[in-house]
Amino acid sequence: MNHSENYKTTWHDTDCNRRVRPTAILTYFEETSNLHMIAIGQPLDDVRDEAGFGFVLSRLAMSFYKPIVAYKNIRVETWTSDGKAFTTLRSFRVFEGDELVADALSLWALVDVNEHKPVKISSYDFNFEHEPPVENDVPIRLVIPKDAELEKVGERKIYFSDCDYNMHMNNTRYPDMLCDFLPDIGQKNLVSLSLSFVHEAAMGHTLSVYRAKKDENTYLFRTVDENGTTCLEAEAVVE
H or E segment at 53? Predict the structure, then answer.
């Protein structure tokens, strides 16, 4: 079942070019998802507290069709689709009036938060009414080629302000982090992001950020924890 929410973008959503940052857009996506869960009688906090289950974002493919600026009325839509035994698909679309300005397809795993292991979606009755997923040209299953020449371009420490109540970096923080390592991003528009979340980044840890140029407008990223664990692999396209 499609669920929608209306918002007005804020000045504090925007970057130095007065465009709404990708992290802000992802936040609008996930807030709408949370409100969808409340609307169907399954608030995420209740699911966690009563059943011990939580959703973890595994993959995300975002497309940006037009820069969004401050104080614009937007409508964000979300809905779920059938995934596999341990996962569900969730789609998003953003409209200014009747114009589609962004969309995304995401893959979420259901986990037992106490045992730290995946559980089948059928373990809990979420009352989902599935619809076909959104379609865009961004790969939802990103694979970085083995011969990609990834070069370390910096480090990023995970601070208190990055984290959610699991004491790990919230997934909404990652798009802006990657933009910080995109060359000349202040003179370019971000067209798409494909994110593959491999392992959580804990508060206090430092990530090494590796980057490779795939083609004129496409960059590959990998972030590696100080313990050697890969946390994120990503592809960013600019114009």
Answer: strand 53-64
